[in-house]
Structure formats: structure tokens, C-alpha cells
Automatic annotation (TrEMBL):
Domain Pyridoxamine kinase/Phosphomethylpyrimidine kinase residues, every copy: 13-257
Gene Ontology molecular function, alphabetical: kinase activity
Species the sequence originates in: Salinibacillus aidingensis
Enzyme class: transferase
Identification of the protein by name: Hydroxymethylpyrimidine/phosphomethylpyrimidine kinase
Amino acid sequence: MNVSKALTIAGSDSGGGAGIQADLKTFQELGVYGMSALTAVTAQNTLGVQGVYPVSIEGINDQIDAIGQDLGTNAVKTGMLHSSEVIEAVSEKIMEYQFPNLVVDPVMVAKGGAKLLQDEAVETLVNRLIPLAAVVTPNLPEAEIITNRKIQSLDDKKEAARQIIESGAVSVVMKGGHEETAEVTDLFYDGETFLELTSPRINTRHTHGTGCTFSSAIAAELARGNDLDKAVIQAKSFIRAAIEHPLEIGAGHGPTNHWAYKQQIRGVQP
Ligand SMILES: Nc1ncnc2c1ncn2[C@@H]1O[C@H](COP(=O)(O)OP(=O)(O)OP(=O)(O)O)[C@@H](O)[C@H]1O
Ligand SMILES: Cc1ncc(CO)c(N)n1
């Protein structure tokens, strides 16, 4: 049997909507064998982040070694990396094992405002990890911090995308979830072509983990052998279905519905 494999290097969300939990659910739904290296444990639910407990560098390295020395992987997604030291260590390990198809989700802040990346780590992210990426998936505030520029117009977005490619990434998707437009447009750029992926903005508060789910769907599609543009287009369909049919659990910003995409394909409504 030809098994596609994907590794997520990210934080744990005890509430199950974001982080490692969202990534593994997404891999499973898209037919990819999921593996994980935990960078931090968070106490978290739909109301916010109650605590962050980092895993030691040794512990992170050990987990990646366990995968690199035995199972290998067809794609890697990074999420919450917490500090400069973690970014350095993870970048070293990705180079050591020459893992292919790296998707970097430059997670900085949780939906409720809790900081998931230290300020001084941004430079390390740009200099060490982004140059290894097949795709970087910033939301607009993250793209502003990475490029150190204000992004208001489509031209600003294109300039920021160019700047991220100049940092060494093969491609970038600038996500439009944070805008206030009637449609959500994610802008893909691979150094040659700009692709605008537009869908109706779904009016919901249940958007916890949208970014994690989107980036892990890209990693899963790359693991299955899809090209970058096709992987991003498929991931957009996956996240759209997951937001369109929310589970409506928890009192705050609830998680997306990872089952919805497959149910839609089978014609069954959740
Ligand atoms: N209300 C919405 N309706 C439709 N699609 C959405 C909506 N919000 C986000 N998306 C889609 O979800 C994906 C993630 O975008 P978003 O900008 O929310 O990421 P993010 O801010 O990194 O998420 P997170 O807060 O989980 O880190 C994108 O593909 C975006 O188009
Ligand atoms: C662990 C973790 N990673 C990423 C995010 C961003 O959504 C979150 N809220 N929690």
C-alpha cells in the first residue's frame, strides 16, 4: 500500500479545535497518515488560552528524530513554535532530514489575543524557517509583522507576497480571514503567478483553528503529490466546508467541522 505521510510540528490545543489536534484530524480526513512533534502544551478552549507549557528543545528534537530515523514523511507543517530557540532547532532538524514540502503557518497570536510566539522570534522565523518553506501561510496581521509594512490594498498584498518570496520561500498564501469584506480572498503567489482564491464570507463566530486547518490541508495535499497551486485550491475547499457547517460546541469561538468536506463529497449533510 502506498501511504502518504505528513508531520505536524506544533502546539497542542486541549480544546481540540486548533494546533496539533486540528492538524491530525485534517490529515486523517484527507487520507494522509498523521504524525506529530509537540512544541508546547496549551490549556485552551473556545473561550481562550488559559496556559502555555513549552516542551524542552531536547524533547522537540527527540520527537523529530524519532520520525526522521524511522518513518520519514512526505510533507511537514509547522504551527506554534513559541520561541527563537524552537524555530532554530526545528529548522536544523528539517534540514538534517531534508524533509520535503514544508508548509510554514507563522502562528503568532490566538483568536482571543494570547501570544503564541515571542516578539523577538520573528527575525529567526524570517531568516531561518521561511527560506526552507514550500508555502508560507500568514494571515494579514502576520504578513504585516513578517514584512514590516502596512497592508491595505491589493497592491500592498502583492508587494508583501513578493517580499516573502524574496526571503526564500517557494510560495505564499496571504489569507483574507481578517478582512471585513463580503468575500474572503486568499492571495497565492509562487514568484510568477498571482492566484486570487475567493469565496463568500461565512457569517459565524466558530472560526477557532481555521488557520491551522487550512495549512495542514495544504500539507496533506502536497503529501499526496499535488502541485502547490492545486494543493492550495483543495485546501480552500476543505476549510470552506469546515466553516460552513460548524459544530456549535463550547460557549465561545467554536471549532470548525473537519468532517464536513468528506460528508459534502459523499452528498451527506452533517
Ligand atoms: N468567515 C469566513 N468565511 C469563509 N472563509 C473563511 C472565513 N474566515 C476564514 N476563512 C478562511 O479560512 C482560512 C484561514 O484564514 P484566517 O485568515 O482565518 O487564518 P488565521 O487568522 O491564521 O486563523 P487562526 O486564527 O486560526 O490562526 C483561509 O482560507 C480563509 O479564507
Ligand atoms: C496550539 C495552538 N496553535 C495555533 C493556534 C492558532 O489558532 C492556537 N490557537 N493554538
